[in-house]
Amino acid sequence: MTPLEVFVRTLLKTSALFIGVTVVMLHPSLEWSRASGLTSSSTRVTAGQSPAEAAVDGLVTALKDTDAGVRRQAAAALGEIGNARAVTGLMEALKDADPDVRQHALSALGEIGDRRAVPALAALLKDASPSMRSRAASALGELGDAAAVDPLIAAIRDANADVRRHVISALGEIGDSRALEPLTAALKDEDVAVRRAAISAIAEIGDGGGSHRFNIGNPHPHPHPHPHPNPNPNPNPNPNPNPNPRFRELAQEQ
């Protein structure tokens, strides 16, 4: 290689390095990330991504780490952060081979509170582990989505009393009147804690107000309306010669 070729190559390398440093300095929002073990040709540049978003994405990637302890910590951290960017990754983590990872992912989804997780959480109501079924029911109650009512009603006869109790409590939190019939049947459950939970759930649904809550019987605001159009039998509309001015204003408004 001639001295001239050496000089030109050195100049090109120096120029490329200078340009790269200049871009980073002028655009600090560019996040440079390199996948582990890949060559420089696999380096990616993500524009407009904040450091917080990059951290969440990094934790989501850690959900697939080879070490179960790392996966558990990543799931717990994502729950504490509460960023909805992690929902998809956490739903995938519900299928992890390690039960502790699944439990941490489940808890994280409940803490984040994104309703996209309802189908994945509802599927866990049929998990082999009673603890997972109980946690899934509690998470669905926290989400409060009516889409969880039918799966929860189906789980109200779970073989495990603790699961039944959590399912009933979740139905009370959601507050949908469709749960009233199975909750009433649960008042005869063999487990006293389940019966108590059913009472509380029915009370929650009945006390919540709204169109999907209790609306039993007479639609009239008074169960026995007065037959007379004027409930006051006194024909004198103003028996008091000096009534309270505020009362007079109210009477005139009526």
What does this structure look like?
With 254 residues, the protein is mainly α. Among the domains are: 47-112, Leucine-rich Repeat Variant (Alpha Horseshoe), CATH 1.25.10; 119-208, Leucine-rich Repeat Variant (Alpha Horseshoe), CATH 1.25.10. The protein contains twelve helices and two strands, in the order αββααααααααααα. It has helices at residues 3-26, 51-62, 68-81, 87-93, 99-112, 118-123, 130-143, 149-154, 161-174, 180-185, 192-207, 245-253; strands at residues 31-33, 44-46. Strands 1-2 form a two-stranded antiparallel sheet. It is elongated and about 55 Å long.
The value of Rg in angstroms is 32 Å
SSE string:
HEEHHHHHHHHHHH
CATH architecture of one domain: Alpha Horseshoe
Class from helix and strand fractions: mainly alpha
Unreliable stretches: 6-45, 209-213, 215-231, 241-251
Q: Beta-sheet strand percentage?
A: under 5%
What's the quaternary structure here?
single chain
Give the tally of β-strands. 2
- Give the overall form: elongated
Gap between N and C termini = 104 Å
Helix content: 55-70%
* Highest CATH level, the class of one domain: Mainly Alpha
